[in-house]
Amino acid sequence: MSRPREDKIRALATTLRVDEVWLALARKPGETPAQKQANAVQAHGAVLLVAGPIEVKGGRVTFPSEEEATPHSWANLNGAQFGVVAVAPQSRDGQTISFIIPEPIGPHRVLGVIAAGLSLSIDLLDLTDVKRQNHGGFRIVTLEARKGNKFKAPDPHNLLAPLASVADLTA
């Protein structure tokens, strides 16, 4: 008859020890336990890939306690302090790339981390203000690939390019 609010779905899923996606959407979870573990490792890697360039540019990164869900890290760069939620792509084909963003985000910056194969090259996309699809407890951003390493966001006139430098985070 009705659907609980996102925060209630998260609490119910935790209490019942069921998958949040299953509870929110009545769909089977798409991940096996091994896939969930791999995604957790990938998410931690995304956080570290963001922390490195901030530290190299003279900034400082600290990590919250394990009880704190967001942000994944705190950054102090050029006098600006902000929380960072770093997400790696969950799916990518030739035309689209999707990121799952945990909620709630609060006032923190959301950075999509795209690593180029096994090279040390990464691209950071600022997804903070990009329109997200709500799925109860998490949101999904799907971007369409464009020429010149740019991506079209769901907003009609929003074209994203990777950040030229982590210093752009303070602009």
Describe this structure in words.
With 171 residues, the chain is an alpha+beta fold. The protein has a single domain (31-170), classed as Trna Endonuclease, Chain: A, domain 1 (3-Layer(aba) Sandwich). The protein contains three helices and eleven strands; from the N terminus they run H-H-H-E-E-E-E-E-E-E-E-E-E-E. The protein has helices at 6-16, 20-25, 33-56; strands at 60-62, 73-77, 80-87, 89-92, 96-102, 109-115, 122-126, 133-134, 138-146, 150-152, 159-160. Strands 4, 5, 8, 9, 10 and 11 form a six-stranded antiparallel beta sheet that branches. Strand 10 (150-152) and strand 11 (159-160) form a beta hairpin. The protein is globular, with a radius of gyration of 17 Å. It starts with 5 loop residues before the first helix and ends in an 11-residue tail after the last strand.
Summarize the structure.
With 171 residues, this protein is an alpha+beta fold. 24% of the residues lie in helices and 32% in strands.
Question: Would you spell out the secondary-structure blueprint of this structure?
Answer:
Elements: H1 6-16, H2 20-25, H3 33-56, E1 60-62, E2 73-77, E3 80-87, E4 89-92, E5 96-102, E6 109-115, E7 122-126, E8 133-134, E9 138-146, E10 150-152, E11 159-160
Parallel strand pairs: 3-6
Antiparallel strand pairs: 1-2, 2-3, 4-5, 5-9, 6-7, 8-9, 9-10, 10-11
